[in-house]
Structure formats: structure tokens, C-alpha cells
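Data card: per-record layout.
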Amino acid sequence: MMDHQREALDMLQIQILDIQKKVLGTSHESGTGVALVHALSYQKGDTVQLTVPRKGLYLLQLDESLGTQVVYLGKTATYPVPVEALEKTCFSPAAFNGSPHLLTLCEAPASTGTTYRNLAENPYDNHQTTGVFPHATANVETRNEMVFAARNAIDGILENRSHGEYPYQSWGINSNPKAELTIHFGRPVVIDMVRLTLRADWPHDSYWTEATLTFSDETTFACSLEKTFLPQSFKMEKKTITSIKLGNLLKADDASQFPALTQLEVFGVEKIV
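The structure for this 273-residue chain is written out next.
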């Protein structure tokens, strides 16, 4: 192994801390990265802490049921483990449950930067997560329930024919016409397509006929939407951005007061500098 590879591997670390910040486990070398086998059940206040040698793309697994995901990490990152029932309504019942747990972390292959993919996907996003991107925020979430949280719009799950429970979690807007959702990428990315999947639990649900995308470069893109179960794609000129906001949501003229979003996908590649 070359010296710089050894140095980078030595600086990769996963730790689990309890509510008193006591270290419950530390990763060891495994394959091309590190792994941590946590033999205990998670308790309230447990936090995963990640340390990497440099900001960049990494392959991360925090739970077997959510799998390995490409994420962009700051040099340090934290993930409060969802333990209580109300925190876990947006996840599979298997997620973060029981014991043992396998957590892994390694640098992403160099080819990941040039691979055309959904740059918005991150099933490990959560309200209190720090240093892990992409990250979704919103100015409203229905009753502040996790099953209607902004993070659901980037978890990669497209099931949309029901609501209120896994795997039909969604971004719910509590019937607020001024609702906005923002995806923060944490670095510049180059994108040329956005795909929206509306929640489609009709007749309980309504839907939006129009929505506006506002990019970090202050340009906008209007989306004309239809009542469909299927994803709706919108191509655009390539643009380099660090965030994207969905807003100006125009509800259809129907009886329901509950339009919602199942998934917001943003396709492109990393900005190579």
C-alpha cells in the first residue's frame, strides 16, 4: 500500500458515542476502508461520529437495511441514531433495530465523480445530521412527523400509492401553499435533469399542477406537473449549483387538501476542479 493510501486509511474512523459522549466502539481496518461491529442495541442519545482525511465522496453504511450509499462528507460528521418509535416511522422496521450492527466507511472510487447519477439521494439524511450531504430542509413538515419529513424526498424510495407509514413516507406540507424544500449538496455539482415523483394516494391526495425550481445561482425553472403515479422528468441546460429549492407550489383544483412529494431526484455529475 502506498504511503498516501496508508495515511488516508489511518485517518478514516467510525465511532459510536453514548449520550454522555463515552465511546462505545471504534472502527478497525476492513477491506479498503474501515468497519465497526456494534454488538449492542442502540440506546437513546447514541451518536455515530465519522472522521475522514479530507472532504469528499465516500461509501457509507450506517445500517444494513439502508445499505451502502455514496455521500459527500466533511472532515467530521455526526449522525444521531434514531431510536424512539416516532423517530423511526420513515424507516424500515429493521433499521437501527436489535443487534449487532455493521457500519462501514471507505473512499468512493475515483470514477464516482464522473458517473452520471442521482446526486440528491441520501437515505442517511436526518434533521440533526451534520457534515453529511446531500441534506434536505423544509420550512414546513406535516405535524413535524418523521414520516412527512423533508429527508423522505431524498431517501431513494419511489413508492407513492399510500401515505403515513413505511415505505410510503413523503414530504408533507400540512396544506401550506408557501411550503418550500431545499436540497443542499455541500459542494458544487453539475446537473441537467430533475425528476419529481408526487405522492399519489388518490382520492386522499391532491397534486401540484405547477412548481418552481430555484437554483443556488439564482436561476429558476418552471415545472408543469400532471396527475400521475409516475416520475416526471425535466431536462435543462447544464448548470453548476450547490443547492436547489422546490417552491411556488400550485395545487390542483380538486377536493383534497393534501398534495405531497415522494421523491426529488437531481441528475448530474461532480464538479471536477
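Known properties of this structure: The chain has one helix and 17 strands. Residues 130-270 form a domain with the Jelly Rolls fold (CATH 2.60.120.260).

See the next section for split statistics.
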